[in-house]
Design brief:
The structure holds two protein chains of two kinds.
Chain A: E1 15-26, E2 29-41, E3 46-50, H1 57-65, E4 72-77, E5 80-81, H2 87-97, E6 98-101, H3 113-118, H4 128-141, H5 157-169, E7 175-179, H6 187-202, E8 207-211, H7 215-219, E9 223-228, E10 231-232
Parallel strand pairs in A: 3-8, 3-9, 6-7, 7-8
Antiparallel strand pairs in A: 1-2, 1-4, 4-5, 9-10
Helix pairs in contact in A: 4-5, 5-6
Chain B: H1 4-13, H2 15-47, E1 52-57, H3 69-74, E2 79-87, E3 90-91, E4 102-106, H4 108-114, H5 122-130, E5 134-138, H6 139-145, E6 152-157, E7 168-176, E8 190-194, H7 195-201, E9 210-215, H8 221-231, E10 239-243, H9 244-250, H10 256-287, H11 289-297, H12 302-334, H13 341-346, H14 355-382, H15 385-390
Parallel strand pairs in B: 4-8, 5-7
Antiparallel strand pairs in B: 1-9, 1-10, 2-4, 2-9, 3-6, 5-8, 6-7
The chains are: A alpha/beta, B alpha+beta.
């Protein structure tokens, strides 16, 4: 049975989603994608969001990452109510507070691995040398220090995803959100990526919210939440 | 500035598309600069001599006027100077028409003060006026035939009425230069020699093709023109007097309509290139939906994304404009040496891309880039991340 509106938003939570609804209007149709979601993710938690296609998990992830806005309700991430921010402020907030990992890596093909990782730092006041040093450090963390000069097309899928992870953490955000990060990878590469995400969570204390279809991936998380038809189901330990 | 490498990397990625778009803009700027240089040259040429009239035979230039008319024209109130000037059509070798260049027999004493656009060093002027066989040549002509002061040459006219028993002998007395800023379009490829020598060599029976008339007040052109023509209304050789600009325009190829036509062509080409570039930029942005979404997700503000797309388009425009300017400059210089076209260009006042036209050309290139990129950039600016990601 679905457990509706049952989660209390904790004050010290890294992510606090409260009474969030998301409705799309197409012509005269009203499509409810998220319906009264309450979700709290503690600092340092690794949460897996699961659910069938169309259940609204990516939409919820987008709201947490500040790349979409709810129709109603509030989303507080890293102490900031992202629903109250202007577009420009939201962009600035994203650049500092959240790292995003896509299913299809989405590296910029004309940039090398290190340039891709450096990209978020272009928005900071760091010098070119400082940016490069940080990007190389991030690549070292993901085990690709020696592939910095390679272009995305010269890397395997797993390596591309590692570069994408390096890009997500290079600004040292508190929250990392991942939308099916292993969805496009073979089993071995998927394991490596999940290992890496666990490392980020355990050693670098990143709060991670991951959307996944894969139960094996979800098992790596501290907790799992299930969405169905825009409603959060009862949580599993 | 820190995003310039990012912009150029994108241009390099699709180098065939970037290159062909830059080439299209280059052709546009090249055509613009070349046509406008030609138009500026033409305008300057047509607009010169506001205080000068030309009196010729009423029927056609093929008919000539009696020498005696000169004194009567000079006596008309408002007339300051009069000089006879006949197009000689002289060539070094009549069997080599490619060698043809413009040459005139002039009454130098009054002609040279009337035409300040032909600038001569004082010693050379004195040498020319003092030598009946002397001639002066333009700098471009001197370069073409490697002539220098003191060189002797012979010319024979291709106009049957001007044919003499033997070619006329000349000595280069001076090489005139021009001031293309004050007098744009002044021909640097003309040879001038003494009318008196020409008149005597042809047995003093040829007559005058044109009288160049300098007047004191440019507002009096109409009145003085009528006064001159009225003088000879009842004579065998009636005259037709007009301003120098009208005279040049009446030569056919130098009409203002040509200027309008050339400007029209330039505009049409620019508009076409604008559409092509706009289409290219739209395609470039459409292909990069995901990339724009990624940039926005990473925190790139909408304005920066707009600037990056616009920057790419403007950079393309700038590259094209610079290439077009260089191409235009190069071709205008080499055009006189191209078979067939060169023959036409040689007879025309020396052309050079003026700085103002080059600046306008560069501005057009940048504007084409900006305008073409504006719509795609605005689309990228407005697009929501989630909508862009949905295209993946």
């Amino acid at each position: 049975m679905p457990e509706l509106n049952a989660i209390t938003v904790a004050d010290d939570a890294a992510v606090a989603v409260d009474s969030v609804c998301k409705v799309y209007k197409r012509d005269r149709q009203r499509l409810v994608v998220l319906d009264g979601i309450h979700l709290s993710v503690a600092e340092g938690e690794f949460l897996a969001l699961m659910g069938p296609s169309g259940s609204g998990k990516t939409t919820l992830l987008n709201l947490i990452a500040g790349i979409d806005r709810p129709t109603s309700g509030s989303v507080v991430v890293a102490g900031t109510d992202v629903t109250a921010l202007s577009e420009a402020a939201l962009a600035k907030w994203r650049s500092r507070s959240v790292g995003f990992i896509f299913q299809f890596y989405n590296l910029i093909p004309v940039l090398t691995a290190v340039e891709n990782v450096e990209l978020p730092l272009m928005l900071t006041s760091l010098t070119k040398k400082e940016r490069r040093e940080r990007a190389l450090t991030a690549l070292r963390i993901v085990g690709l220090a020696d592939r910095g000069r390679h272009y995305p097309k010269q890397l395997s899928g797993g390596q591309e995803q590692r570069v994408a992870i390096a890009r997500a953490i290079v600004t040292d955000p508190r929250i990392v959100v991942a939308d099916e990060p292993t969805g496009d990878l073979d089993a071995r590469s998927a394991e490596e990526i999940l290992d890496l995400m666990q490392t980020l969570n355990q050693e670098f204390h990143k709060t991670i919210v991951m959307v996944t279809h894969d139960p094996r991936a979800a098992r790596r998380a501290h907790s799992q939440k299930h969405l169905e038809k825009g409603v959060l189901l009862k949580s599993e330990p | 500035m820190r995003f310039l490498p990012f912009i150029f990397k994108h241009l390099r990625k699709n180098w065939i598309r970037s290159g062909s778009t830059a080439c299209a803009i280059a052709v546009c700027i090249f055509l613009f600069c070349t046509l406008q240089t030609f138009v500026a040259s033409l305008k300057g040429f047509l607009g010169q001599g506001t205080t000068r009239l030309i009196t010729r035979h009423n029927v056609s230039l093929l008919f000539r006027l009696p020498n005696a008319y000169e004194a009567q024209i000079a006596a008309v109130p408002g007339v300051r100077r009069v000089a006879a000037a006949n197009y000689f059509g002289g060539m070094r070798d009549l069997t080599k028409p490619d060698d043809a260049f413009t040459n005139f027999a002039i009454e130098a004493d009054s002609f040279l003060p009337m035409y300040p656009e032909f600038i001569l060093a004082e010693p050379e002027r004195r040498a020319f006026l003092g030598d009946q066989h002397g001639c002066i040549i333009g700098r471009a002509l001197a370069e073409t035939f490697h002539w220098k002061v003191g060189d002797a040459l012979q010319l024979e006219s291709d106009i049957s009425a001007y044919r003499t028993a033997r070619p006329l002998d000349f000595v280069v007395s001076g090489i005139y230069r021009t001031d293309q800023i004050r007098y744009p379009g002044t021909n640097e490829s003309v040879l001038f020699f003494h009318y008196k020598y020409f008149d005597e060599a042809t047995g003093k029976k040829v007559g005058v093709a044109t009288f160049r008339v300098e007047i004191a007040d440019p507002r009096q052109t109409g009145i003085i023109s009528h006064a001159i023509d009225n003088l000879f209304e009842n004579s065998d050789s009636q005259t037709h007097t007009e301003t120098e600009a009208q005279y040049r325009a009446s030569l056919g190829m130098l009409g203002w309509s040509l200027i309008v036509l050339l400007n029209g062509i330039a505009l049409a080409v620019m508009f076409t290139i604008l559409l092509v570039t706009a289409n290219t930029m739209s395609m470039a942005v459409r292909e990069r939906h995901t990339e724009i979404a990624v940039l926005k997700t990473l925190g790139f503000p909408n304005r920066l994304v707009l600037s990056l797309v616009l920057g790419e388009s403007v950079a393309l425009g700038a590259l094209g404009a610079i290439a077009g300017l260089l191409l235009g400059r190069f071709l205008i210089n080499v055009l006189p040496n191209v078979p067939v076209i060169g023959d036409v260009v040689k007879g025309f006042p020396k052309m050079n891309v003026p700085p103002t036209i080059a600046v306008v050309g560069l501005g057009i290139g940048l504007s084409v880039g900006f305008t073409a990129g504006l719509f795609p950039a605005l689309l990228a600016y407005r697009a929501r991340i989630t909508d862009l990601l949905r295209h993946v």
